[in-house]
Amino acid sequence: MQRIGDSPGMRRLLIGMAVGLTALFLLLPLVAIFAQAFAKGLGTFWGNITDHYTLAAIGLTLFITALTIPVNLVFGVMLAWLVTRFQFPGRRLLQTLIDIPFAISPVVAGLIYLLLYGRNGWIGGWLDAHDIQLMFAWPGILMVTIFVTCPFVARELIPLMQAQGSREEEAAVTLGASGFTLFRRVTLPNIRWALLYGVILTNARAVGEFGAVSVVSGSIRGETNTLPLQVELLYQDYNTVGAFASAALLALIALFTLAAKAGLEWRASRREASA
Amino acid sequence: MSIHLENIAKHYGRGGQHQALAPLDLDIRQGELIGLLGPSGSGKTTLLRIIAGLEAPDRQPKGRILFGERDVTHLHVRDRRIGFVFQHYALFRHMTVYDNVAFGLTVMPRRQRPPGSEIRARVHRLLEMVQLEQLANRYPAQLSGGQQQRVSLARSLALRPDVLLLDEPFGALDAKVRQELRRWLRHLHDELNFTSVFVTHDQEEALELSDRVVVMSDGRIEQIDTPEALYRAPSNRFVFEFLGDVNQLEGEVRDGVLTCGDARLDVELPDGPRNLLLRPHEVALEAEPSEAAHLPVSVTAISPVGAEVRVELAADWLPGPWLATVRHADFERLALTRGQRLFAHPRHWHRFTAASHSECHATAPMAG
Amino acid sequence: MKASAFSLGLPKARQRVLPGFGLSLGISLTFVSLVLLLPLTGLVGQLSGLSWGEYWAIITEGRVVASYLTTISAAAAGALVNAVFGLLMAWVLVRYDFPGKRLLDALMDLPFALPTAVAGITLATLYSSNGWMGQVLAPLGVEVAYTWVGIALAMAFTSIPFVVRTVQPVLEDLPGEVDEAAMTLGARDGVAFRRVLLPHLWPALVTGTGLAFVRSLGEFGAVIFIAGNMPYETEITSLMIFVKLQEYDYVGASAIASVVLATSLLLLLAINLWQGRFIRRLHGGSA
């Protein structure tokens, strides 16, 4: 079949431009991260990674991520189940609402949490009176992280579950399955890859969130500094190699995310081809 | 403009293992309306697309495509001066009906492009011809399937092509619209006198519309003939079976009598196993057997809709059900009901030797 | 949370076949209210203490207005660059087969997967006067780091996937017949692309570019490192909010944030409405 733009000259030109520009704008930065991180050798890199404050930042980031994922997993599955399996008034509105975090600038997201739960906010004031501090402490970081990552799981699941329809689940109900058994035995096997990808995206964003977290963290070294904030701190201290060592860790997670996406897509296309 | 194909073949897939067209020749005369008929996968669409230049034929063997005296084998589709009508219309959704029809004229290189006033006049003439002038400012999505296909036709005619190619043009339309458009295409073809080739898998459509029909299967041309010749003298079993309903009679011939279970039929054939084919209208039904034929059957279904009554027959000596068409008068005379036991009387039968494609043993008159 | 409380207003006659309506509705509504909606009240509360005059004074202060202009112009430039780059990438990834295509495809998502702060320090380092790119560009008189160009570059980088990923599926779904119809009517490649293919891709292209623009308006992490952050010159609005917060000027931060928030939401709404109108025309209904 012939298509527009299929002449060999046009092909070569466009592919050349695409590869060249991608190498310049995407690949080069990626290479630069690792080049900087290892600029002073493997030993320095290792020293930077195992630095006391960096380790604390890694620990906090992992802790926050480990709490964020299950919360968003439950919410995402519940919301997807609700909007794809039932008709009720306000269904469209609910679907629009979960996109709010995508529309809000991360700094603004941090700000609205700070306003509410900070010392001057109407909840924060009450909390302060009871000696509970959420902002400039890990609970605040957790809250904004949940906020910015909450659409990911639901956004992966809703289109898939919509396309699959509820016939299989209805059949299972007629066969006597109910409640959690129904979900585990019938729904879960169909959505597990989308669920996994939603979790991977949540993970990537939770680990890497900067704008919102920097507003509510207070950046106390060794206490409320997440890994991205540690990157910023080291960079501002003119410790470029140290900053890039931490950045390289974050870049590795990003690469893992890309690989996982490519792998899942490859798997889906293979299943489509064999079906 | 005549079309001449010579040694055209097409292979697909890695290393070309899948054959879409075996090397073939085809001659289409100026002004003919030709139907390419065959089941899906027979290569008819591939052949049409090769004529259009949308697919390239194999380089080996070296084939040639001529439009009149012009060798177009290596010419790009956009330079072949053909009109092409797609099964799913392929109208440009973002353009109005008018802009769709005008498209070919407005994209011509500036030097060859007719002036705006002439383009307008020509488009309006075309829209008038397809009876859609009042819908000129609509978008394709606002039209019915039949209307869209008419727009598509007008669009393909705007450049006054020498050759009009249509790929299952009525395939996506419902029966009534299809009938209407067929008649209308025939009329258009006769009036404008271009050479047309259309692809279809519908025998009725091919036989009704074409001057000649090219029957294809498995990437080969099985027969090229006028509809009458094709139906009366199919050159092989494939063509015979593809052009209509077929009843089969298998049995052993000994001393001029074919037997199969308790069925028996006099035939003038040498001894041995034989396979006879009959069209539904070649099967008569009677209450009694005759000297020459003793073929007991029972009625399993009756469909009295149409000019003739279609009767489905079964018997334990038959491998599959038979279909017979009976005049309404006979239907009433025999008082046919489901489950009734009768005798079939072949008026004609056909036989093809399995080995050869071209050999044909035409009908033999029988009692009836 | 009791499920029955939520089903009160719903028609009772309709039997729900599948289980879990009450539970999923309860959890979803609780979550949406507490996590998404409740915090917005903080912003409203903070702003309600302001008179219109005070509000207007804050959001039209010279330095803030300069930051709007910087942000909007850089975001627009970044989005336009992405429109061209994204269209090219989508075209190449859909229409051609070549070695390394999968890798190229996977790389398109890098800006979403890479933490913005990492992108920020990397771009700043690359384009600073002694960075790999900076060294090449400096002799040509092109300064990127700590200028408006750097802001636009960082914004373009973080929003690369938007255009590619919105145009790609539309291009994939475009039937080959559209190309063929244009070719049988004699159209050359350039004309056919401009008059036939581009109009089909237009809604996706505009949507993707719009989303890239909105995202760039709010971008923070990737930009601040390369921006230079000079008042009146290379300061973006997100940074203004951040600066106000560090000065404990919560009211000022809230006022500016409300402008950013309202702009983003209005733009997204506009994109949605525009898209709906376009799709209706192409898929039937009255024009």
Automatic annotation (TrEMBL), chain A:
Positions in coiled-coil regions: none
Q: Which Pfam families match?
A: BPD_transp_1 (PF00528)
Primary localization class, coarse: membrane
Question: Which InterPro entries does the record cross-reference, listed alphabetically?
Answer: CysW_permease, MetI-like, MetI-like_sf, Sulph_transpt2
Q: What are the subcellular locations of this protein?
A: Cell inner membrane
Gene Ontology CC entries for this record? plasma membrane
- How is this protein situated with respect to the membrane? Multi-pass membrane protein
**This protein's UniProt keywords:** Cell inner membrane, Cell membrane, Membrane, Sulfate transport, Transmembrane, Transmembrane helix, Transport
List residues traversing the bilayer: 55-84, 96-116, 136-154, 194-220, 240-260
Q: Which residues form the ABC transmembrane type-1 domain?
A: 58-262
Query: Gene3D superfamilies given for it?
Result: MetI-like (1.10.3720.10)
| PROSITE patterns in the record | ABC_TM1
SUPFAM superfamilies per record: MetI-like
Gene Ontology MF annotations? ABC-type sulfate transporter activity
Q: Which domain of life does the protein's organism represent?
A: Bacteria
Q: Does the keyword Transmembrane apply?
A: yes
* Quaternary structure note: The complex is composed of two ATP-binding proteins (CysA), two transmembrane proteins (CysT and CysW) and a solute-binding protein (CysP).
Q: What does this protein do?
A: Part of the ABC transporter complex CysAWTP (TC 3.A.1.6.1) involved in sulfate/thiosulfate import. Probably responsible for the translocation of the substrate across the membrane.
Q: What is this protein called?
A: Sulfate transport system permease protein CysW
Originating organism:
Halomonas halmophila
Q: Tell me the gene name.
A: cysW
From TrEMBL, chain B:
Is Transport a UniProt keyword of this protein?
A: yes
Which of UniProt's keywords are assigned here? ATP-binding, Cell membrane, Membrane, Nucleotide-binding, Sulfate transport, Translocase, Transport
Keyword Nucleotide-binding assigned to the entry: answer is yes
Query: Domain named ABC transporter: which ranges?
Result: 3-243
* Gene3D superfamilies registered for this protein in UniProt: P-loop containing nucleotide triphosphate hydrolases (3.40.50.300)
Q: Which GO terms describe its molecular function?
A: ABC-type sulfate transporter activity; ATP binding; ATP hydrolysis activity
The cross-references to Pfam families, in alphabetical order and at most eight, read:
ABC_tran, TOBE_3
Q: Which GO terms describe its cellular component?
A: ATP-binding cassette (ABC) transporter complex
Provide the protein name. Sulfate/thiosulfate import ATP-binding protein CysA
Supply the source organism for this entry: Halomonas halmophila
UniProtKB/TrEMBL annotation, chain C:
Q: What does this protein do?
A: Part of the ABC transporter complex CysAWTP (TC 3.A.1.6.1) involved in sulfate/thiosulfate import. Probably responsible for the translocation of the substrate across the membrane. Part of the ABC transporter complex (TC 3.A.1.6.1) involved in sulfate/thiosulfate import.
Q: What is its main location?
A: membrane
Q: Where is the ABC transmembrane type-1 domain?
A: 68-271
Cell cycle in keyword set: no
Task: Name the UniProt key words of this record, in alphabetical order.
Answer: Membrane, Sulfate transport, Transmembrane, Transmembrane helix, Transport
Which InterPro entries does the record associate with it? Answer: CysT_permease, MetI-like, MetI-like_sf, Sulph_transpt2
Could you tell me which species this protein originates from?
Halomonas halmophila
The annotated topology with respect to the bilayer is: Multi-pass membrane protein
Q: Which GO terms describe its cellular component?
A: plasma membrane
According to the record, the segments passing through the membrane are: 21-45, 65-94, 106-125, 145-164, 204-230, 250-274
Kindly list the places in or outside the cell where this protein is found, as annotated in its UniProt entry.
Cell membrane
Complex formation: The complex is composed of two ATP-binding proteins (CysA), two transmembrane proteins (CysT and CysW) and a solute-binding protein (CysP).
Q: Does the keyword Transmembrane apply?
A: yes
Q: Name one GO molecular function term.
A: ABC-type sulfate transporter activity
Q: Which PROSITE patterns does the record cross-reference, listed alphabetically?
A: ABC_TM1
Q: What protein family does this chain belong to?
A: Belongs to the binding-protein-dependent transport system permease family. CysTW subfamily.
The domain of life for this entry's organism is Bacteria
Designated name of the protein:
Sulfate transport system permease protein CysT
